């Protein structure tokens, strides 16, 4: 990830997951309720790069720590496509099947 500018050791803008320039002003609006994969990816990228501290992201978007980490894990494993609801549901089903087979 390329950092483009800093203020107080925090980047002012970053290159987002779709190669767009992200700033605090261009992130999804606070209290977003409709979470498409691209918005989730923007939030995770902003937190990982230091643009948005994790505690501020949780508060700003009313997320639980578990929900944020599930987004981060999905993005790390499968990219933006892994953040789609259908992909998450398929992943859960596959994990349940593996657990049943191992029981």
From TrEMBL:
Give the range the annotation lists for the signal sequence: none
What superkingdom does the record give?
Answer: Bacteria
- Alphabetical list of Gene3D superfamilies matching this protein: Winged helix-like DNA-binding domain superfamily/Winged helix DNA-binding domain (1.10.10.10)
Q: Name one GO molecular function term.
A: sequence-specific DNA binding
Protein known as:
DUF1153 domain-containing protein
Annotated source species:
Novosphingobium ginsenosidimutans
Its taxonomic placement starts with: Bacteria, Pseudomonadati, Pseudomonadota, Alphaproteobacteria, Sphingomonadales
């Amino acid at each position: 990830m390329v950092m483009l500018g800093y203020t107080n050791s925090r980047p002012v803008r970053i290159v987002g997951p779709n190669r767009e320039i992200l700033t605090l002003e261009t992130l999804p609006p606070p209290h977003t309720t409709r979470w498409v994969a691209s918005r989730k990816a923007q939030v995770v990228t902003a937190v990982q790069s230091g643009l948005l501290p994790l505690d501020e992201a949780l508060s700003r978007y009313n997320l639980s720590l578990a929900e944020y980490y599930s987004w981060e894990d999905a993005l790390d494993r499968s990219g933006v496509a892994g953040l789609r609801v259908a992909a998450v549901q398929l992943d859960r089903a596959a994990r349940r099947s593996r657990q049943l087979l191992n029981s």
